[in-house]
Structure formats: C-alpha cells, structure tokens
Fold this sequence. Notes:
- It comes from Pedobacter metabolipauper.
- Belongs to the class-III pyridoxal-phosphate-dependent aminotransferase family.
- The protein is α/β, with parallel strands linked by helices.
- The chain has 2 domains: 14-46 and 288-376, Aspartate Aminotransferase, domain 1 (Alpha-Beta Complex); 47-286, 3-Layer(aba) Sandwich (Aspartate Aminotransferase, domain 2).
- It contains 11 helices and 17 strands.
- The strands form 4 sheets. Strands 4-12-11-10-7-5-6 form a 7-stranded mixed β-sheet, sandwiched between helices. Strands 1-2-3-15 form a 4-stranded mixed β-sheet.
- The chain starts with 13 loop residues before the first strand and ends with a helix.
- The mean pLDDT is 98.
- Bound molecules: pyridoxal-5'-phosphate (PLP).
- Pyridoxal-5'-phosphate is lined by residues 95-97, 100, 123-125, 177, 181-182, 210, 212-213, 238.
- Pyridoxal-5'-phosphate binds next to helix 4.
Amino acid sequence: MNLFDVYPLNDIEIVKAAGSTVWDAEGQEYLDLYGGHAVISIGHTHPHYVSRLTDQLNKVGFYSNSVKIPLQQQLAEKLGQVSGKTDYQLFLCNSGAEANENALKLASFYNGRKKVIAFKGAFHGRTSLAVAATDNPKIIAPVNETDNIIFLLHNDIAALNAAFTEYGNEIAAVIIEGIQGVGGIKEASVAFLQQIRSLCNQYNAVYIADSVQCGYGRTGIFYSHDYAGVDADVYTMAKGMGNGFPVAGISIAPKFKPWYGMLGTTFGGNHLACAAALAVLEVMEQDQLMKNAEEVGSYLIAELKKIEGVLEVRGRGLMIGIDLPESLAHVKKELLFKHHIFTGEAKPNVIRLLPALNLTKDHADQFLEKFKIALKG
Ligand SMILES: Cc1ncc(COP(=O)(O)O)c(C=O)c1O
C-alpha cells in the first residue's frame, strides 16, 4: 500500500527535536522557526510536557465521553484563567477544522439561521462548512459548495455594513481570523473587529474568532482578536493547544445554552489530549511565554523592517510574515537547505515565521544573520 500523495515533501526526515532545534536522520541540526506549522508552542519535547503525557499514559490514555473525565474540567478552568474568559464554556474536539465546524453549527443552532459571512484570503479548514468558508475554490469539492457563505473583502467596513443591511436577520455568524495565516499574515483592523462585534450585537449574529493559528498566546495576548478590545462569542483553537498532540476546542460565551447531543465527538477531550493541553498552559504561565512572544516578536519585526529588499513585514508577536519580491522567491528554500532554518510560506512570496513561543533572542539573531546572507546570496 502507498500513501495518498497529497503533500509536496521536503526530502528531510526529522528524528530528534528539543526546544526550537530539530535534527534530521543524518545528524544535521536545524533552527525551527516554523514550529511544524504553528503547532509547537512550548518547544519540542519540553520536559514538563513529556513527563505529564508519560504519567498520564501510564494511568489511562483514553476513555469515552460517557464517563467523568476530571482533567477536562481542570483544563476548562486553566484555559478560562489564562485566556481571561472565566465565564466561557469549553467544548473539546480534535482539529482546527472541527473546531470551526462546531462553532458554525453552534451559531446556527443558536439563532436558527443559515448564512455565514467570511472574508477573502480566509482559511478555516477542510471539512464541509469550514472549507466552504475558506477562500480557495481549488479545495472546495462540489459537495461542499453552498450559497450560505457570503465572502466579503477583508477589512472593508462599508462592505460589511452593506451585507448586514441586505441580509440582516439571515446571518448566523461572521467568522474571521485575527491575523490571516494562510492568507499571508494579514491582520484584521481594530475598527473592523469592533464593527463585527457591533453588527453581531445589533442583528443577533454570532462573532466567531478563528484563533486556530493566531491564538493561544502566539501574538503576545491569548486571543489576537482581543487586541480590538471587544469579546468574540466563540473562539476556536487548535494548533498550539497541544504542542503537537492533536487537541482542539471552542470557548463559548455564557449566552449559549447546551443540550445533550448538541455537539459531540469520540476522541475530543480524551485523557491524553487534556494532559497535553494542561502541560502547555502550565508551561505558558510558568515561563511567561506570552510575554516572551511579544518581546522577541517585536524585536524580530523591528529588525526585519530595517532590512533592504524586503517589501513588507507584517504580523504581531511570533506570527510574522516577510513579504519578498518575486526575484527573492528562492530565499525560503535557501534558508532550509543552505542555512538549515525551517520557515513557513504563504502565496505568492511570503515567508511565515511561526516558532515556539519560547524562542530566544539568540535564535532570533541567528535567523536575522542567515536571512541577510540568504537575501544577498
Ligand atoms: C486559521 C486556521 N483555521 C483552521 C485551520 C484548520 O486546522 P486543522 O488543519 O487543524 O484542521 C487552520 C490550519 O492551518 C488555520 O490556519
């Protein structure tokens, strides 16, 4: 049997990892500024994470949601405290797409409506409604096509107002990333998020903050959307939540009332997933990783902005996009194969930095030095 060949692969096998360093099968060391696609939040193989998961595995790894799992309540309390949303409710699932799918479903159950506002450049996942709300026709199968999604220009307040004026009471939800990741590190403006909040209040629509990539402390605050000073009704999260263990969740405002069977999952909230997520929050809190993300991120952004040849530097904290001209499109590959630095990318020529939140200033300096050489090379 062969693998279903859907990923273009780099010819590298990673066999060991610690903090922001990984090693391949030949013993070559790499600096990891990609974090396995924004997933590694507290660093690879963090000792506290490894021991918490190992201890849990030696007790019980999985039992279904038909029994009490006190770790889920512990996780909810910790998440409420670290995110500053102590009165929200937690539903646990397994991936970012699933989190968004559940958030959209919840919104529609809540107000009985069908239409969803999403934005150009958005990525919300690959399951049916999440992919329909994703601005990439190539990955939307005919069965996922629906007239229920209204795509608007990102950060266009006039278009947002007009859509609410036209569809008003048909709109179930507005879903938006605080900073578009796949879309090339484009931040939603404060005024835009405030207007979403205000229109959702006016029309009883649900404001869904997709925090799958930009959330979980990456930008220096727990949910990057909260930078706008208004609360979302539902926050979706995944990537950094388990530092590589598949776990996702949605944080739900108090006004949503649950009923048995409204949402559900086999694997969501299992013992190991909760242990992983608790370990992440404990390390984030103990080592003040949001503060570090803010400080090292601000330093990197300021230094990158000084470099000649870069078109634009976007982002916040440790979610950074470096926009390069077409003539420098080779730089990302050169960083990986010549300088042994993992970075992410976005179309057409954006280098995406999504490292662990405990990236050190030394690591940042190493990257800056190699990046400058790669630009000249
Ligand atoms: C903003 C955003 N939402 C949702 C998803 C989907 O997450 P997953 O791949 O875990 O389903 C992603 C993945 O890249 C994402 O960046």
